[in-house]
Here is the input.
Amino acid sequence: MSAVTHDIPEEAGRESFWRRNLHFFLLAPGVAWMVLFLIVPLVMMVYVSFWTQTTFAINSTLTTKSWAAFFGSETYYGALIRTLRLWLTVLVLTFLAGYPTALFIGRFVRNKTLQTVLLVTCVIPFWTSFLIRVLAWRPMLGKEGAINIVLEKLGLISGPIEVLLFTELSVIIGMVQIYVVFMVGPIAFMLARIDDSLIEAARDLGATPLTIFRKIIFPLSLPGVVVGAIFVSVMVLGEFATASALSGRKVNLLGNIIVTQVGSLKWAFAAVAGVVLTAVMAVVITGLLRLVNLQREL
Amino acid sequence: MMEIRGLNKSFGGNIAVRDFSLEIEDDEYLTLLGPSGSGKSTLLRLIAGLERPDTGAIVLDGKTVTGTPPHLRGLGFVQQKYGLFPHMSVFDNVAFGLRYRQIDPVSDQRTVNDRVERMLELVGLEEFGDRMVGEISGGQRQRVSLARTLICEPRICLLDEPLGALDANLRERMTVELRRIRSALGVTFMHVTGNEAEALAMGDRMIVLDAGRAIQVDTPHDIFSRPANVQVARFLNAYNILSGSGQGGAFETAGARLAMPPGVSGAVHYVFRFDNVAICDPDSRGQSGSAQMEAEFIASEFLGSRVVYFFRRPDGGVIEAEKHLSAVDPRGMRQGEKRILRWPVENVLLYGKGGGMLRHEPVLEVAQ
Here is the structure.
């Protein structure tokens, strides 16, 4: 009798433990995926960056030679500086081009359906592949490209503007066009969420439209700006295709360095550039997240 | 003083406000009662300048302000949804108008501090200046919204259903608070509500709005005791309204002939207050000076200090009788029991075909 009464709570306890924690199994596929394809590769990348690289082979003897070479060579840390400069330029330009567009869609288009239609319109360039979108800029910007021909025919210039293609400028033009939509979307979304009663209240309290924008609309859209900036930053920092296609391989970003090093089987060196790039992204995202408290705003 | 003359506004063929005229005095509490869809919010937005009228004029201190933008009218507007700025603290919300208004902004931080603190004290939120508006309760938000408007010292403060989002308990407290704050500042309040008790309790004067038209403007006492219009009587939710026709000293309504005040012809609505109805035994004798009708008890509703009894008329309609428990004890009746309902003929109000009142002598005093 006593054995039976002893068994029952034990059984119940075990069952409720399983019941209580069963929902964690929902995480299993995600966790397995992330460990296999994110955590392990990240750890490997850091590890490999300390391996010893010889011309045609690599072995796991630990050394800091690759790191020293990276920061000792103008070519490589120059690429880091160039990547940062290009990222900042593209970020500022996508913001300057994207914010007014988002402001128009989010605050001046009153019809929700039309808002959605306009946002989808922004995504139309994405219906073609990334490479085609990049390469399409060549016949636009080239010496005998569309822009130069039109300007010459209009008599605005006598000779072609050569700076348009195979320069840092062409890379910036290409990247801004491709990534601006990632800025427009989140900002338009935040702007559309601002309750009209706030604007009316501010108007009634005597604020001018400019003050209302500065003190109410812009601060409330800031979370959208930050999300957009994170999207753009992550994509621009990791870029290599636009840079190589539109600069004629003259503009080398960290991404390009990784591609060439991997191509020539310099794994350790590619890993160093990868770790640096990952660190830069982490710093940038952390910095952007500090600007606003996204948890509170979204 | 503000004068509103013949305001009209329609939205795509739907008339929202129809030929509305009103004079608003300085230092008064005006309530505007109307059911939803009666155009009361539109009217408020027209006065505030958030909408433009189709025709009509708004004159403030002798100056026409019909086309003036809201912030140049010197009016304050407290929105139903409060419209607080979620990214600012309570203090910054209240200070907004002082700091950022186009005309005469206050840049001196000390003056802003002083005035905001005084205003927060007036609305009882002196401890809450540093809180974000997401961290305070509904009643507190209401008061922040009010303080934010009042700090700009508007001539008239418009309140759009200010108590609508509050629970009953808080609503009663804010009723008293609003009156106190108003008289402390001497600002005119124009308070829009769909709740008849609120409109009666708060206003110095009261406007009853129906289908975009003001159908009565008077003191709450006069509106309650002598509704000018059968529609007003209906909104007050304190009158039994029977339809039929009155001829030769009797009112014919489905299933009954009721005694009615003499000397009136053409009555189509026969109206008497819930609390004028006496509930008598079925075999009791008729009394001179009262009208009576046999009715069947349906149910009663206990409201704490009073009880409302519902009776079914011979034609199927409902008659309500209200008894205050300080005067009579509650009585138990079974459903379906017959009773004779009696009410004094002199207190009956009669209304004609257009809904207008047919008898204008004062007939009763409001019970205390």
